């Protein structure tokens, strides 16, 4: 297959994916580490390389409001944010998914204040797991570009009509330069049909958009929204398959298993850290240790079937969380644990909370996690939530 | 644009009867809404010159243009009296219900 590789950052890869998807309206407010994406898009619109309208809005709240308004009447829309900006959008995020308006956004995963931090973790998007958006987490710049294109096809599908958030790790992905294949516009046009809104209106057929509901039927609208999210699972599979046939890159649907076939102990993670885990898995495999990686791509809809399937085959599952739901455990762990609890088998589990506020999760850290899982199974250790790589002694 | 009329509402019995999200054809009026009207506008058609000032100013859009004659949609008229107050010919009288 012919490729056209250029050396760009993850942020620029997202901008390229957006350009190729031909949105009609882009409304975004710059925030580190997403800034380069919206700068590039602004430049492309200015230079006439894109036909869309770029709205320079005064805040993230306005960015989501503008994009969902445009989406409601049938425009393809894009917004992007991160951290505090994403949280400032929070009201609009629920509003948008309830309206069934398939806005696509990029979120550069970044920690949440206080303490103020511009560096990466997953606390921004995971704290909005319940806002009704499809959430995908990518591992590299190529996947970021490709998932923007896929996101429009998934979100705008008539059985889904749900907005989608493409998450990439702040700095680790947004600011790292990689060779990224830029698909041809013609091929993207063939892959991505025009968005057909169910809300087409005219003077003859006016529509009332985003009305209120009484207790009589609010639950039905929420039921419908939940069904749409489950419908997305099949659509994600179909779109990924079609994408692979068209562009030669496949992302294994809801999750990707890496060397899990005969694994005894597996680490579950989201995003860029999966790249590091692959290296450690290869090293430990070479030493005869049966370890594997489950890369969760989609947190919503959640890959329950895939997690259960894996849990039936392994002895121990460790979950890396770049977040903590204070007073309990990591959010990824809570979700994974819920799936595992539905199978009729005991699996040793452990939650490693780490990588907060941009702290590296190193190869040595990951190897230690695998070894803790092996010893946990052997010694029947207590299952617990562990803050990984603390630099100080604690009172525990 | 056609003036919407009161339509009998059938509550959905299947989830597929619902629209995709809270949006639907505008002007679908499932309920009448004039229950609290105390005074009702009565038009003196001999005095009316069809200037349509009432049509423009009615806050609920209940004035109907019908071939040179003003009619009032009593399913939605709240009896506010704006039309009677504004009529330059005093052709509308508010009469107690």
UniProtKB/TrEMBL annotation, chain A:
The keyword ATP-binding does not apply. Residues 263-366 form the Pyruvate:ferredoxin oxidoreductase core domain. GO terms for molecular function: oxidoreductase activity, acting on the aldehyde or oxo group of donors. It comes from the Bacteria. Pfam families: PFOR_II, POR_N. The keyword Ligase does not apply. Residues 19-239 form the Pyruvate flavodoxin/ferredoxin oxidoreductase pyrimidine binding domain. Keywords: Oxidoreductase, Pyruvate. GO terms for biological process: carboxylic acid metabolic process; response to oxidative stress. This is Pyruvate ferredoxin oxidoreductase. The gene is porA.
TrEMBL record, chain B:
InterPro entries: 4Fe4S_Fe-S-bd, 4Fe4S_Fe_S_CS, PorD_KorD. The keyword Iron-sulfur applies. Keywords: 4Fe-4S, Iron, Iron-sulfur, Metal-binding, Repeat. GO terms for molecular function: 4 iron, 4 sulfur cluster binding; metal ion binding; oxidoreductase activity, acting on the aldehyde or oxo group of donors, iron-sulfur protein as acceptor. Signal peptide: none annotated. Gene3D superfamilies: 3.30.70.20. SUPFAM superfamilies: 4Fe-4S ferredoxins (SSF54862). Its cofactor is [4Fe-4S] cluster. This is 4Fe-4S dicluster domain-containing protein. It comes from Ancylomarina euxinus.
């Amino acid at each position: 297959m012919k490729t056209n590789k250029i050396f760009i950052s993850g942020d620029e890869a997202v901008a390229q994916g957006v350009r190729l998807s031909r949105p009609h309206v882009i409304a975004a407010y710059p925030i580190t580490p997403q800034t380069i994406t919206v700068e590039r898009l602004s430049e492309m619109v200015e230079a006439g390389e894109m036909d869309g309208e770029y709205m320079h809005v005064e805040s993230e709240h306005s960015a989501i409001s503008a994009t969902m308004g445009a989406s409601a009447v049938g425009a393809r829309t894009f917004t992007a944010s991160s951290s505090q900006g994403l949280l400032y959008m929070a009201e609009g995020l629920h509003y948008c998914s309830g309206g069934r308006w398939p806005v696509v956004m990029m979120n550069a995963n970044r920690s949440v204040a206080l303490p103020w931090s511009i560096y990466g973790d997953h606390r921004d998007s995971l704290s909005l797991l319940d806002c009704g958006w499809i959430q995908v987490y990518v591992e590299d710049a190529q996947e970021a570009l490709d998932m923007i294109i896929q996101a429009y096809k998934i979100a705008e599908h008539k059985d889904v009509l749900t907005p989608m958030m493409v998450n990439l790790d702040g700095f680790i992905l947004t600011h790292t330069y990689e060779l990224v294949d830029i698909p041809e516009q013609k091929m993207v046009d063939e892959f991505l049909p025009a968005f057909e809104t169910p809300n087409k209106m005219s003077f003859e057929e006016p529509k009332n958009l985003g009305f209120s509901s009484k207790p009589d039927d609010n639950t039905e609208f929420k039921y419908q929204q939940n069904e749409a999210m489950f419908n997305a699972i099949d659509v994600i599979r179909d779109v990924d398959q079609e994408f692979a046939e068209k562009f030669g890159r496949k992302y294994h649907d809801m999750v990707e298993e890496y060397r899990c076939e005969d694994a005894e102990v597996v680490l579950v993670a989201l995003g860029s850290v999966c790249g590091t885990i692959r290296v450690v898995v290869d090293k430990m495999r070479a030493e005869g240790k049966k370890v594997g990686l489950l890369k969760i791509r989609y947190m919503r809809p959640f890959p329950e079937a895939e997690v259960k399937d894996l849990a039936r085959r392994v002895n121990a599952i460790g979950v890396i969380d770049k977040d903590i739901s204070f007073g309990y455990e990591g959010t990824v762990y809570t979700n994974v644990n819920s799936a595992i609890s539905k199978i009729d088998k005991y699996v040793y589990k452990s939650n490693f909370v780490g990588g907060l506020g941009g702290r590296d999760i190193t190869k040595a850290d990951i190897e230690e996690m695998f070894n803790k899982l092996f010893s946990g199974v052997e010694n029947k250790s207590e299952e617990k939530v562990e803050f990984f790589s603390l630099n100080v002694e604690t009172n525990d | 644009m056609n003036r919407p009329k009161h339509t009998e509402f059938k509550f959905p019995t299947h989830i597929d009867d619902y629209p995709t999200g809270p949006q639907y054809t505008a002007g679908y009026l499932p309920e009448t809404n004039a229950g609290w009207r105390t005074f009702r506008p009565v038009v003196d058609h001999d005095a009316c010159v069809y200037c349509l000032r009432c049509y423009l100013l009615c806050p609920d859009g209940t004035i109907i243009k019908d071939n040179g004659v003003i009619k009032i949609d009593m399913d939605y008229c709240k009896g506010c009296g704006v039309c009677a107050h504004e009529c330059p010919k005093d052709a509308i009288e508010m009469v107690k219900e």
